[in-house]
Amino acid sequence: APGETKEIAVKVQDARWDIERLSDLAYDTDSQIGGLLMFFSPSGRRFAAEIGGPVIPKFVAGDMP
């Protein structure tokens, strides 16, 4: 609904983090990430939302919950 807010957690998990050396971002305190999320209403209307913030990696053994 208009004005409604929700918290969204984005999980990025892929071998490409190591292949493309993105895991090095964990050691750079100035690392930032940005993107564009697309949301669609039931009627098919598209809404774009810009996102961005610091990279805060969480390295765990196995799959994350």
CATH homologous superfamily title: Particulate methane monooxygenase, b subunit. Chain: A, domain 3
> Which CATH top level class fits?
Mainly Beta
Helix fraction? under 10%
How do the helices and strands follow one another from N- to C-terminus?
HEE
Count of helical regions: 1
Count of beta strands: 2
Task: Tell me briefly what this model is.
This protein is mainly beta and 65 residues long. It contains one helix and two strands, in the order H-E-E.
How is the topology of this model organized?
Blueprint: H1 16-19, E1 32-40, E2 46-54
Antiparallel strand pairs: 1-2
What does this 3D model show about the protein?
The protein has 65 residues and is mainly β. The chain has a single domain, classed as Immunoglobulin-like, CATH 2.60.40.1580. It is built from 1 helix and 2 strands, in the order αββ. It has one helix spanning 16-19, and strands at 32-40, 46-54. The protein has a two-stranded antiparallel sheet. The longest helix has 4 residues, at 16-19. The protein is elongated.
